[in-house]
Protein 1
Amino acid sequence: MGPMSRLVGRQLTRHPIRSVLTVGSLTVAIFLLCLLRSLVTTLEAGVDAADSRRLWVMSSVSLFADLPLNYQRKIEQVEGVANTCKWQWFGGYYQDRSNWFAQFACDEKRLLEMWPELEIIEGNADDFLRNKTACVIGEGLARQFGWKVGDRVPLIGALFPRSDYSVWEFDIAAIYRPKKATLDEQTMFFHWDYFAETQRASEGRDPNVGVYALEMHDPAAASSIMATIDSMFENGPMRVRTTTEAEFTRQFVEMVGNVPRLVAWIGTGVLLAILLAVINTMLMAGREQIREIGILKALGFTDGTSARVLLGQSLFLCGIGGGLGIGVAKLTEGFIARSIARMFPGYHVVGSTVALAAVVTIILGVLAGLVPAWNASRLRPVEALRRS
Amino acid sequence: MLPFSYTLRSLFVRRSSTLLTVFGIGATVAVVSGVLALRQGFTTMFSDSGRDDIAVFLRPGSTNEGDSRFRRQLGDQLMKSLPEIAKDAEGRPLAGMECYLAILREKTSGGKTNVAIRGIQPRGFAVHGKAVRVVEGERFKPGSDEIIVAKKLAARIRDCRLGDVLVLNTTPLKVVGIFESDGPYGSEIWGDLDRVLAALNIDNPNRVVAKMRSGTDVPALAKRLKKHKVYPARVLTERAYLQSQTAGLSVTLLVLGVMLAVIMGLAAVFTATNTMLAAISSRTHEIGILLATGFRPVPVFLSFLFEALLLGLLGGAVGCLMALPLNGLETGAMNFNTFTEAAFAFRVTPGVLTTAVLFALVLGLVGGAFPAWRAARMRPVEALRRA
Amino acid sequence: MIRLENVTRVYRRGGEKLTVLDGLSLDMEGGKFYALMGPSGSGKTTMLNLVGGLDRPDSGHVAVAGEDVGALEGAALSQWRADNVGFVFQGFNLIPVLTALENVMLPLSLTPLSRAERRKHAEFALELVGMSDRLSHRPQQLSGGQEQRVAIARAIATDPGIILADEPTGDLDRDSADQVLGLLERLNKEFQKTILMVTHDPAAAERAQRIVNLDKGRLADDPREGA
C-alpha cells in the first residue's frame, strides 16, 4: 500500500461515524437501485428467453376474449405448423383469494412436447398424463404451499365455477423446474379434458380456448404462418392476432403498467439524494483537510496528487458502499424472490444489474470527489497553511 | 433556551452543507410524495364517483365485472322480481344488464393498450343518471351499431373521435357521441348491450346494475341473495364496488411508498446526522463557551435538535415544491383488478403535503437526535481545549 | 546560495493593498544558519515562503543555487521543492492521521527510492532527532517538542540543501526550544544545511550565524558577521 492510499484510508477512519453513515446510505441506495432494476429485468426475462419456434394465436379484440374450439384443427392444417396446444386461464384460487396463483388448462401431452424447458424434478410425466385430474406444478408453488407429489389440492374456480359451486380437485402428479424464463415456477398446468368435461356439465357446452400456442417446423416461416392464420379468421367469428412468443410475452409485461418508467423516475430521485449526501460528506472532508493538503504541497507533492487524496476518499467510500449494496442485493435475492414470487416470479439480480450498479457507484464516487479534489488542486499552500 | 437567531445563523454559515442536506431530504420527500400523489389520484377517482343508491349484482365468488358472468334469463328474472329496485314513470324497473370487456386498441401515440368497452341496456342511462354526460353528439340508439366514447379516450385512442368508425372484431361501430364522467366510466367506450355482445361473440353479460328505492338496506339484500335458489348474486353498492376495485393498485402503491420512505429515509437520516455532526464538531469551541457560561445541557440539546428539525422542515418544503408540479399531471396506470388502463391525474392534496412535511420532520428529528445528544454531553473544559 | 533581487510582494485584502516586501534585495550564503527577525508584518514569513517556492514574487527574482524559483510552475515547482527544501513550521503541521514514521516517509515517496530504502532513510532521520522510540506514535500522542522534532526529521528526510523554519520554537517551552535549536545547529554544522529560521525570540536568533533584520518589507540593517 502506497503512502497516498494509506493517507486516504486513514482520513476515512478519522471520522468513523461519518464514514459509516455515508457508506450506510450508499449501501441502502445501491441496494434499492439493484432491487428496482431487478424487478424490471425479472418482468422482461420472459421476453428475452422467448422461443423463436413458437407462435401464439390470440384474439385480436381482447386479451380476455376466447377463441372457438374448432380453430385448433384449422390452425394445424396450416403448412409449417408442427404442433399446437390449447391454453385456458383458469383463474382459481386455493382456500382464500389471497392465495392466488396462475393455473392453465392445457393439452397435457402437447404441453410436454412443446415445452422441453418444463423439467420434471419430482413425480413423473406418465402419472401426469394418465390420470385425468392430475396436474403438474412449479417448484415455487410446491414450496409456497408445502405441496408434495400425491397431494390432492382443492381449488375454487372463480372464473369457471362448477354447477354446484363446489371446489375443483386436482392431484399433484409432478413438480417441475423451469429451465428457461419462458415459464415461471409459480404455475399449475392440468388436463384440458378435465376442464372441458366439468364445463360441459355446468354450462351445457364445450368451453372456449384462451389462446393457442403453435410450434413451427422452421422459424423462418414465422411471418408467412402468422399472416396465413390471421387472414384465415378475418371473417370471424373471432378475429385473431398471431404473434411471436417474444411479442406475446411483452404485452403481458406492458399490462402490468409503466413499471420501467416509474422505476426510472424513482431511481433518479434515489441517485440525486445519494449524490447530494456523498458530496456533502466529501465537502466536509475537504474543508477539514485543507491544512493537510497545504502540508502535502509544501512537501513537494503536486496539485494532482493532492486532488487524488480527496478523490480517492470519495471513490473508496463509494466503492465500499456500492459493493455492500450489491452484496446485500445478492444476499437477499432468495428471500425477496420468495416474498414477491406471485407478482414477480423468478426474481433475480442479473449480471447486467450488478455491472450497472458498479458503474453508477464509480460515477457517484467521481462526481462527489470532483469538487473537493478540484478545490484541493487549486489550493495555494501558503493560504492553506495560514488557515488553521 | 438559546435564541432562534443562533440556529438560523449557524445554518446559514454552513450554507453549502445545509443546502445539500436540504436537497437530499427534499429529493427523498419528493419521491415519496410523488408515489402518494399517484395513489391519491387513483383512489380519489374511484371512491368519489360511486353512488350509494345504485346496487351492483355480480356472480357469487367474483370480485369484479371481468370475473363475473350473469346468465341472461337470471338477470331478467332478478330485475323483474326484486321489490327493492326503483321503477320509472312507466313502472319498469330502473335496472339493466351490462357487459364489460378490456379490449386491445391502438394508441394514437403508437403501441397498444387495454380499454374497457361496456354494453348497456336502454334504461342503463337512466340508472347511471348524471354520472355519464354526453357533451358532444348524442347517445347511441338502442339496438344500433353506434357507440359513445369517453372524452379522455377520444384523443388518446385511435378511431375514437366523433364520426370515426371503430371496428370491434368484425363489426364496425360508429362513434356518435362523446361523454364525460368523473369516475372510471370516464375512460370507457359505451354501446348497446346486445350489439356489443354479438360483436364480441359472447353470450352472457357480466353484471346487473339497478337504482334502488330510497332507504333500501343493501347489506340485508346482499345477505338474502347470497344463497338465493334461483338467482344467487353478490350485491354491493356502486360506491363499495368501486372502492374495492382500487385495492390492488392502491395497496401496491402504498407498499411501494412505505418501502421507499423507509429505505430512502434511512439514507436521508444518515446525511442529516453527518451534517449535524460536522456542525457540532466545527462549533466545539462555541459549545464549550456556551456550557462554560452556564447554559445547561438540555437547552444545548434542544437547540441542536431544533436546528435539525429546521433542516428537515426546509427539506420537506423543497420536496413539496419538487412534487407540486406533478399535481394535475394526467397519467395512465394499469388497474390490476380489471387489467384496463385508467386515466387519472396525480393529486398532490393537502393530505399528501402534510404527510410529506411530517416525514421530513421525522427525518430531521431522527438525524439530529444523536449529534444533539453528543453536543449536550460535552464537558466544557474539554470542548474549549479541543478547539 | 540564495539571492533575492529587488523582490516585491503585495497582498490585496478587501481592496486594500498591503506591501509586504518592498524591493528587497539580499544575498545569503549556502551552508550558513540565518535568523530572520523583525516585527509582525515585516515580511519574514513571506520571504521564507518565496525562498521555498510556496509563494511567488510580484516583481523581482528569487534565485536558489542559480535556479529562478519564481519562474518555476506546477509539477516542476513541486519537484523542485521536494528535491531542495525542507519546511519546519511553528504549528508542526504533521498529518494527524499518520504515525511519526509515516509522516517522515511521506516526502520520501516522491523519490525513486524503494519502500525499504524509504523506511531506512526515515528511521535514520528520526534517530538523528532522537525520536527512534516513537516511530508508531500519532502526533496527538506526542508532546510539542517531540512533534517538532518529528517535523524536523521530515524536513531532512529527503536530504534537501535548505531548511526553512518558520518560528520553530514559537509554541515550545524553553527546554524543548533548546533541543530544537540544538538540532538545527547540528544540521548546519554536521550536514552543511543552509538554514533560514524566522523567529521573534532574540535568544533563539543568537544561535544563528547571521541575523537578518526586516522592517516594513526592507532590510533594517546589514547582516551581522557571525562566528
Protein 2
Amino acid sequence: MNEFVATVVRGLGNGSIYALLALGFVIVYKSMRVISFAQPAFMMAGALLTGYLVLSMNFFVAVLVALLLTGLLGAVVERLALRPMIGKPVFVIAIITLGVDIVIRTVVNSFIGLDIRQMGDPWGLRQVDVLGAKIDQRHLATLVTTLIVVAALFAFYRWSRTGLAMRAASSDQEVALAQGVSVGRVFSLSWALAAALAGLAGVFLSTGIGLEQNLWLTALKALPVIILGGLDSLGGAVVAGLTIGVIEALVGSYGDNLHPVFGGDFFLVVPYLLMLLVVLVRPYGLFGTREVERI
Amino acid sequence: MSRPLLYLSYQQDTALLNTPGKRFWTSVLGIVAVSLPFLLTDDLLVVLATACVASIGAIGLNLVTGYAGQVSLGHAFFLAIGAYTAAALSGDPDSTRLIGFGITSVPIWLLAAGLVAGLAGLIVAPLAARLRGLYLAVVTLGLVFIGEHVFKHWRDLTGGVGVGRPAAVPELFGIQFAVDGSLFTKAQKLYLLMLVLLVIFGVLARNLVRSRIGRALAAVRDRDLAAEVIGVDVTRYKMIAFAVSSFYAGVAGALLYVMIGFVEPGSFNLGMSVQYIAMVLIGGVATISGSVLGALFITLLPRVTRELPAVLPFISSSSAAGGITVFQVETILYGLLIIAFLIFEPRGLFGIWIRLRTYWKSWPFSH
C-alpha cells in the first residue's frame, strides 16, 4: 500500500511536468493551429538559465528571472522565425519549429556540457513521510506548483482582458482583428507563455536529479499527452498529463509482475502506446474539438 | 525536326524526358555520375553512395508527405524494419548470438526488406485514414519511439544497444561488393551499385507519380473531400501511399548501413526522421529530383563543415580545445538551413533550379 501511494505521487509529480509542457503545446496550438516542436528547447533553456542564475541568487528568484528570460526568448523566436510564415501550411510551420528546436538545443547543450548540472533547489532528493509512504519532496513541490500555475492560467484566460483577447483570436482570427484584438501580440504572448511553462517544467524535471543533455526527450512525452487530451483543450492537457504520469509510474513499479516484457524501461513507451490506442477510438483525443468541414 | 514544345498528345506532355534540353542534360548527368568513381577518392565515393541510398529513402518520404500530403515523422521506423530484415536475411546462419539466414544475394534481401517494411506501412495506414494533419504527424512520431524500444530490446535480431550487428552483405552474381576487388575498390563498387539502384527506384517513383495513382495522391493532398467527390477512394490511396513509401524506406534502410557494415539499434530515432523530412523540404516537396538534391545536400553537409576549421580558425575540430566544435556548427547550420529554406525558398533546391532555368531560358529578357 505504501509503495502504491509512493508510486501514485511519483506519477502525479512527473505527470505535472507533462501537464506543464502540454499546456505550452496547447497554448501555441490554440493561437496558431501549429504544434511547436521547439518546446523541448525552451524547457532546456529554462532549466539551464535557472542553473546559472541560482549561483548568484535565491532559488525562487532565480526561477522567476529564468522564466521571464525564457518567455522573452519564446517571443523573440516567434517574431523572427514564425511571424513571416503566417498563412503558410501548418506542416511547414511545424517543421520550422523543429529547426528552431535543433538550433536552440545545440546552443544550450554546449553550455550544459557533458556533466550533470545541479539546480541548487531546496528539495534535492529528500523525502517526507505521508501516511507511512516515503515520498520525494520534489514531486510534491512539482504537483503543488503546477496546480497553482494551472489555476492562475485558467483564471487569466477566463477573467482577464488579455485572456479574453487570446480566446477570441483562437476562435476566429479575422473577427478578433475586426474587434480590435492585436493578433500579433496574441501570438507573441502565446509563445512567451508556452516557453515559460516549458521552462518551469524543465526546472522541476531537473530538480534533484540535475540537468543533463538527454533530458529533452522527456519533453516529447507531452506529445502523446496533447493527442490524448485533444490538441486544443487546456483542461484535457492537464487531465491527460496527470493520467499518463500516473499510468507510467504504475507500469514502472508493477509492470514486472505482469510479464518481464513490461518490466525494465518499458514504462518509457507507455505514453506512446496509450496514444495509439486512444486515437484509434477517438481521433481527436478525449477532449479535443472535432473538426467540422464544409464542402 | 519536330517543334520542341509542341505537344500533340497527353502522353507526350507527361513523358519522362519531354524536352531536348532534358534529354541532353540527363545524358550529361548520367555520364558524369558513371565516371565519378574514376575521378574521386574512395572516402568521397562512400559519402556519395550514402547519399544515393538516402535519396531512395527521401523519395519514399516525398511520396507520402509531398505527393499524398500525409505528414509522417515515422520514417525512421520503416528504415529500421528494412535494415533489420536485410541484415537478418543475409546474416551468418551459424551465429549463436544473432538471427541469420545466410541469403546474401542483393535482389532477394532488398525486395524482402522493402516488402516487410511496406507491410508494416499497410498496417499503420488505417491510422492515417482516421487522422489528419498534425495529429497524424505526432502519432507516427510515436511509432519511432515504440520501434526504438522494441529494437533496443530484441537482442537476437539487433544485437542490443551499443553492440549492434553486422549490416546486410551485398553480393550479386558472385561479386562481393563490400570487399576490395582486383578491378575495383570496395567504395567504387558500392557507389556504382547504389547509383544503379537509385536510378531504378527513381524512375519507378517518377513513373508512379505521373500515372493515375500519382494524380489521385495529389488530389488527396490538395483537398481530400473534393478528391472523394470526384471518385478517388481516399482511404485506398492513403494506404497505397503509405505502403509504397514504406517500401522505399525499407529498401533505403537495408542499403544504408552496407557502407559502414554495421547497424546500431539506437540510430533509428526521431533525429533520423527529422533528417529525412529536412531532405524532402530542402530538396523540394513533391518532386523526385528534388528529393535526390535534398538527400545529397544533407549527406554532404557534415563533410563540408568538417573542412571549416581550416578556413575559420575559431572553430575547433575537437571538443577538448574549447570554442565551438565542428559538430555544433554542423547541427546549428542544419537547423538554420531548415528554417531559412522554409522561409525564403519554400520550393527548396528544386525551386532554385527552376528559377535559374527560367532565367537562362528567357535570357537576356527578364520575362
Protein 3
Amino acid sequence: MGGYLLRRVGQAAVVLVGVSVVVFGLLQLVPGDPIRLALGTRFSQETYDALLERSGLDQPVLQQYVTWAGNALTGDLGVSFRSGEPVTQLVLERLPATLTLAFASILVALLIAVPLGTLSALRPRSVVDRGATVLSQFGISVPDFWMAIVLILIFAGTLGWLPSGGYVPLTEDPLGWLQRLILPAIVTGVVSGSVITRFVRSSVLEVLGQDHVRTAQAKGMATRQVLGWHVLRNALLPLVTVTGVQLAYLLSGVVVVEIVFAWPGLGQLALQSVQARDYPVLQGAVLLFALVFLVINLVVDLLYSVIDPRIARR
Amino acid sequence: MSEPVLEVEDLRVDLRTPRGTAHVVNGLSYTVGRGETVAVVGESGSGKSVSVLALLGLLPSRTATVTGRAALQGEDLLTMSKNRLREVRGPGVGMVFQDPMTSLNPVLTIGRQLAEAVRAHGESSKAAARERAVDLLREVGLPDPDRAVDRYPHQLSGGMRQRVIIAIALANSPALLIADEATTALDVTVQAQIIELVDRLQEDHGTGVVWITHDLGVVAGIADRVLVMYGGRCVEDGTVDDVLERPAHPYTRGLLGALPDLAEETGDGEVPDLATVPGVPPPPTDLPEGCVFWPRCPVRSDPRCETEQPPLDLVGGPLLTKGDGLPHRAATWCREGDDRWT
C-alpha cells in the first residue's frame, strides 16, 4: 500500500512537470505582446525596456522556464502584468469561491444521480427509467448558460426569491452565501448529475446481474440490505471514477456559469487573464488546474484500493 | 420412504424472451426425502437450473411465470409471501451455485458474507455471528478458519471458495440443500473433496439434497435417485442403478453412450471415437408437439412419437419395480423388446 502510494505520487509529479512545460511553451506561441498591452498606447522605449527586463521576458526561453518553474516550486508564481499583484495571491483569493461551487455542485449531482440511477437500474424500461433517461439527456444537451439564464429569470426575476449572482464568504454572511450558491450549484450540478446518472444506472444494472447478488438473496437477506451492501458497494467503483472526473472539471472552473452568475472563481480569472494576455496569471491558473486534476485522480485511485481490496494488491 | 422434504408437482416455468415465450420447464414432478440425494441430470439448456431457481423465487419476476406446486415440508414455496420466502431462504433451503469465482462478493470478507447469512435469520450480535462463521469454516474444512474469516474471496482458491459457499448454504442448517452444478467449475480432485464434504454434512444433518449436474460420474458417486431432464421435462427417473445400468429412454442411453470409456480399445490400440447424441436440443420457444426428444431420436419406433407426448410410465410394468418401492419410470413410446430398439 505504501509502495503503491509512493509510485502514484511519483507519476503525478512527472505529469505535473510535463504540464508545466506545455503550459509555458503554449503561452510562448500565443500572439500579442503582453508588455505593450500592459503599458497602454502611450509609453516611451525606456519604460518598455525596463518592464521587459523586470518581467524577465528578455531572457532566453529556457532560462525563463527554469526561473519560472523554480519560483513556482517555492509558491511564487510571479506577478500579474496587469495589476502587479502576486499571482499566488490572486489565485488563492479565487480558490474558496471555486471550491465552494465545485463541492456544492457535486453534492447536487450525487443527490440527483444516485437515487435516480439506482431506481432506473432496479426497474429497467419502467416509467421511472424512461423519465430518468429523458431528464439526463435534457441535462446533458441543454447549454448551461441557457439553464442559468432561465433560472435567474424565474427565481431572481419573476419570483424574486434568490439573488441573481455574486458571492459572499460563508464567514461574513452564511444566509447570503447559501442564497447565492443555490442557483449556480443547481446549474452545474444538473449537468454533472445527468452524466453521473447514466453511469450509476449502468453499473448498478451490471452488478445486479452478477452471481454474488443471487448468493446474497439465497441467504435470505432483506432486499434493502442486498442492495445497500452488495450492489451499491460494488457499483461504487465506477461511480467514484466518474465523480472524480466531474469534480476535477468543476474545480477547474466552469467559466460560463461563473460569468453568468458573476461568481469570482478561477475560471473567471483564467478568462480575464487570457483577454489581458496576463501570462503569469494564466500560467498560474492552468498549473493549479493541472494540480487539482492530479490530486483528485490520486485520491480516486487511493479510494479504489479502499473500496476494492483486489486493487491494492496489484 | 421417509417424510419428503420437498415435493414438486407439475412445475412449469415460462420465460418471456424477445423471440417469444420460452417453455423452459414443462411439468416437472419429483420428491426429495430426508437425507436423500436426488441428482438432476441433463445437458445445457434442459431447464435444470431454472427449475431450482424457480423454487426459491430467484428468477426475474418481470419475465418469469412459475406455476405448479413445490411444497417444502408441506408449505408451498410458489405461493408464499415474499417475506416468508425470504425467511425460508437459508433455514429452509440452502443453495450452492455453479461458479465459486463469481458467487462470492469480491469486496467483502468471507467472514462478513457468512455472518450475514447467520444474522439474516435471528442472530443479532456481530461477535456471535463471527464466531459461528469461524465454526462453519472449520466444519467445511477450511484450514486456519480464525484467520481465513478475514480474507477476501480473491485470496482463496476455487475449491476453498466453494467450501465457503457451502458453509454459507449450511449456515442455517437447511432442511434441503440445492447444489447447482456445484463441482462443474472445479478440477477433479477438488471435485471429489467437495462431494465427500457434502456427503458427510448430509449424514450429520439429515439434509435432503438436490444435486444438479451433467456429470454422470458424479451422479453414480453421490445420488440415491436420478432424474433425467430433457427439453424441460423429466424423461426418466429411478434409482441410480436402474437409470445408469438399465436406461429405458433413448436419450438416457445416448447420454450414457457419450461417456468416454478408456478401457475399451479397438483392435489397433486406438481409443474409439466418442459417441455423441447428434443434433441439438429443441429451442424452448418452439418445442415439438410429440416427444421432446423425437427430432434427435435414433429409435422413433412408434407412430405416436411425432404427435403425442409419452407419459412418464413405469418401465417394464409394475411387477418389475424393485422391493424398496422406488419406481423406475421413463417417458417414451419405445419399449424394450421392440425390434427397432438399438
Protein 4
Amino acid sequence: MSAATITAPAKAHSADTRIPLRSHLRHIGALARRNLLAIKQDPESMFDAVLMPIIFTLMFVYVFGGAMFGKGHQEQYVNYLVPGLLAMTGLNIAMAVGTGINEDFRKGIMDRFRTMPIARSSVLIAKIVSELFRLMVAVAIQLGMGFALGLEVKTSVLHLFAAIGLSIVFGASLMWIFILLGLTMKTAQAVQGVAMLVLMPLQFGSSIFAPTNSMPGWLKSFADYNPLANLADASRNLLQGGPVAHSVWLTLAWAVGITVITAPLAVARFRNKT
Amino acid sequence: MSVAPGTLVRMKQNDIPDGGGTAVQVRGLVKHYGETKALDGVDLDVREGTVLGVLGPNGAGKTTLVRILSTLIRPDAGSARVAGYDVLTQPRQLRRAIGLTGQYASVDEKLSGFENLYMIGRLLDLSRKDARRRADDLLERFSLTEAAKRPAGQYSGGMRRRLDLAASMIGHPAVLYLDEPTTGLDPRTRNEVWTEVQGMVREGATVLLTTQYMEEAEQLADELTVIDRGRVIAGGGIDELKAKVGGRTLQIRPADRSELPRVVGAVAQAGLDGVAGATADEAEGVVNVPIVSDHQLTSVVGLMAERGIALAGINTHLPSLDEVFLAITGQKTSTAAEDTPADTLQEISA
C-alpha cells in the first residue's frame, strides 16, 4: 500500500508552499516574544545594554575630558563624546548577538524550530527584533547619561531622533554580521575573540573619542573610511550642528550594503547548519 | 463528538485510515561522515497506527536516521517518505506532519511550561485563543498544570521529557519520532514517560521510537528493527524477534535442590513451542526456561503447581541488548557492551 493514502494536513496540499506573509509575521512575533521572555527571566542579560553606556560615558568623560579640555571643562567633551558613543552602542549590542545566537544554537529548541513548518529566516529576524529592543534601551540610557552630564542638543528634537534612528538602523545591519559570525564559528568564546579583534580598531580608529586631525596619515585615512566614524560624524553633526548630508548618506549606504550581503548569507548558513 | 478536557484528539485531516498504509518509508538511506558510515543503506517501514522500535547501541545510526526523517540533515543517497512527503523535495509539508522528541529535551529552559507550548502553538498558526487552550489541555494531560508557570529549566528530568512530548503533540502530528525518549532517566521517571507514550499509541499515534533498551522496545513497540553500524541486522514483530533471540528467560528456583531434575522433566513435557528446552543450573539451584509468551509462562507455573513442586522463587528476565545482538549476529554490540542505563545517566549529568 502506498504512502499516498495518508491524508496530509489541508494546508500542505496547496501548491504554493511558501509561508504567507501574515503567518511569517506571526511566527516572528512568537519567536521575538520568546526572546523577550528569556530576557525577563534572566535580567542579567541586559547588563551590557544598561551598564556599558553608563561606564563608558563616565570613564571617558572624566579620564579624557579633563585632559582634552582642561579640568572642570569636561562638559565640552560630553558634547563631543556622547554622539560618538551613541554610534558605538549599536556595535556593542550587535556583538552580543553573535555570542547569543551561538549559544542558542546549541540548545535542543533550535532543532525543534528547524523541524517546524516555519521559514527559517523567522528565527533570525526575531532575534534582530528582540535585540533592537535591547539596543533602544541602551540608546535611551546613553542619552540619559549624556543629558545628566550636560549634553546639549544644539539643533532640534527632529535632528535628535534622526541621530537615534541612524544608530539603530546601522546597529541592525551590524547584527546580521554577528549572526553570520555566530553561526559560523564553533564556540561563543571564538565569536567573542573575533568580535573584539574587529571592534577595537573600528572603535578607536575613528572620530568617536577624539578628532582625527591629530592622527598620523595612515590612521586618518582608515578613520575616514571607517563606517563607524561616518556614523559618529553624522550623529555629532545632527546634534551639534554642521554638515550632515554626506555622512548620513554614507552611513545609510553602509547599512544597506551590509544587510544585503550578510542577511542572505546568515539565513543560508542557518538553513544548512546540521 | 464530546471530548473530556485534556484528552488528545486527532484533527480530522490528520486521521489515518484504519487498515494501515505506510506512514514512514525508508529505502537505501545512506549518510556518511567522512570515513564513518552513520547510515549504510537502511530500509524500513512504519505502518500507520503502529509503533516501530529502532533498537541499536550507541553510534548505530539511530539519531542520524531521525534527523534525516525530520529534515534536519540530508541523506547522501536513498529516499525517505513520511506521511507521503519526500524528505528532500517536500520538507515544508513534511514538517507539518511530524512531531519530534529528542534525546535531549527540546524545550526552552528559560520559558515556563505554558509559554513553551503557547509559542509552539503560535508557530503552528493557531490563534492566540486556540494556542492558549491547547497549551492548557496538554499541560493537564501530561500532569504539568501545577508547574505550568515555572521555567522549564527548573523541571525535573521526567517533567522536561513530558513537556517535550506535549510540545510534539501540539500540531496533531501524523507521525511522531521519539529519539531515545528515556535515555538518562531513572526507572520511575522512565515508567512515567512510557505511560504517556502508551496513551498516545492507544489513541492511534504512529510512532518511530529509537532506543537502546530491549525492555523499552518490548513495552512500546509493535515491530522492531535492529540496527548496528548503520545497517539493519534484523527486523520483524516483537514476538518473532523474541523467538529468534529466545525471548525472556523464566528462572524457577525449587525449594528443594534435589527437585531440579523434576522441574526440568515437567517443563519438557509441557511441550513449549519455539523455544529451546529447560536447563538446570546446579550451582545456582535454578532451572532456566526460555519462553516467548505470557501464555507459556502461565502454563509452566501452572504445571509446577499441578506436580506439587514447592517453589522458593520464580522470576523472568528479558535479554539485554547485548544478548539480542549475540543471538542475531553472534557478536557483541559494536560499541561498549557494558553500556548500561546507569552509565548513560552519568554521561548526561556530567
